[in-house]
């Protein structure tokens, strides 16, 4: 059995369901890293799956299906602000969180708060670079932007994260 199967042999609805069953958890984690919260991650995952279903016949092989899904998800996340604007709004009450061991919880919370303070494009670039461990050219291709834009967005994002972690407002 070869790793690359022609699309004509696996375009059935059962094969799409198999793809979703196999990759749903990994794609949900990826969506959570991009959005920072469960409901938005679920929405992003659903949007990605709808787009994948509609394009299923154009996906060349199983190996590229996951890459196609990740690219679709990253682009959908970055372009969402164009349609809706920022949906986040400040609240007076901080939601309750489930605590784990102190050091990991504090570090994780600090990272999530820092990521939440970034713009969509900066956050996507950081997630693709450090969560997915992609090189700059691959990030640029994934998001449909230039390598120079990736570099500048990553630099600004890391600067913003440094300031938010250190508590320095400048």
Explain the overall architecture.
The chain has 170 residues and is mainly alpha-helical. It is 70% helix and 0% strand. It is built from seven helices and no strands. Helix 1 packs antiparallel against helix 2 (38-55) and helix 1 (13-35) packs across helix 3. The chain is globular, with a radius of gyration of 18 Å. The N and C termini lie far apart (57 Å). Mean pLDDT is 80; it is low at 1-11.
The class by helix and strand makeup works out as mainly alpha
The poorly predicted ranges are 1-11
* SS element count, helices: 7
| Strand segment tally | 0
- What's the helix-strand series? HHHHHHH
**Terminal CA distance:** 57 Å
Cα-based radius of gyration, to the nearest Å: 18 Å
Proportion of residues in β-strands: under 5%
Average residue pLDDT: 80
Percent in helix? over 70%
Oligomeric state of shown chains: single chain
What's the topology here?
Blueprint: H1 13-35, H2 38-55, H3 62-84, H4 102-116, H5 120-131, H6 136-143, H7 147-166
Helix pairs in contact: 1-2, 1-3, 1-5, 2-3, 3-5, 4-7, 5-7, 6-7
Q: What keyword list fits this structure?
A:
0% strand; 170 residues; disordered N terminus; 7 helices; mainly alpha; globular; 70% helix
Summarize this structure briefly:
Helices cover 70% and strands 0% of the residues. The protein contains 7 helices and no strands.
């Amino acid at each position: 059995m070869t790793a690359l199967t022609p699309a004509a042999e696996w375009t059935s609805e059962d094969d799409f369901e198999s793809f979703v069953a196999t990759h749903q958890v990994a794609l949900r984690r990826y969506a959570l890293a991009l959005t920072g919260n469960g409901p938005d991650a679920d929405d992003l995952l659903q949007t990605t799956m709808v787009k994948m279903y509609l394009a299923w016949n154009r996906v060349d092989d199983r190996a590229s299906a996951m890459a196609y899904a990740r690219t679709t998800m990253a682009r959908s996340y970055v372009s969402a602000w164009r349609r809706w604007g920022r949906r986040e709004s400040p609240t007076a009450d901080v939601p309750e969180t489930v605590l784990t061991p102190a050091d990991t919880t504090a570090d994780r919370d600090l990272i999530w708060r820092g990521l939440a303070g970034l713009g969509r494009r900066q956050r996507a670039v950081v997630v693709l670079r450090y969560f997915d461990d992609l090189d700059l050219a691959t990030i640029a291709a994934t998001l449909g932007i230039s390598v120079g834009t990736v570099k500048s967005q990553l630099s600004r994002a890391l600067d913003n994260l440094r300031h938010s972690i250190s508590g320095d407002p400048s």
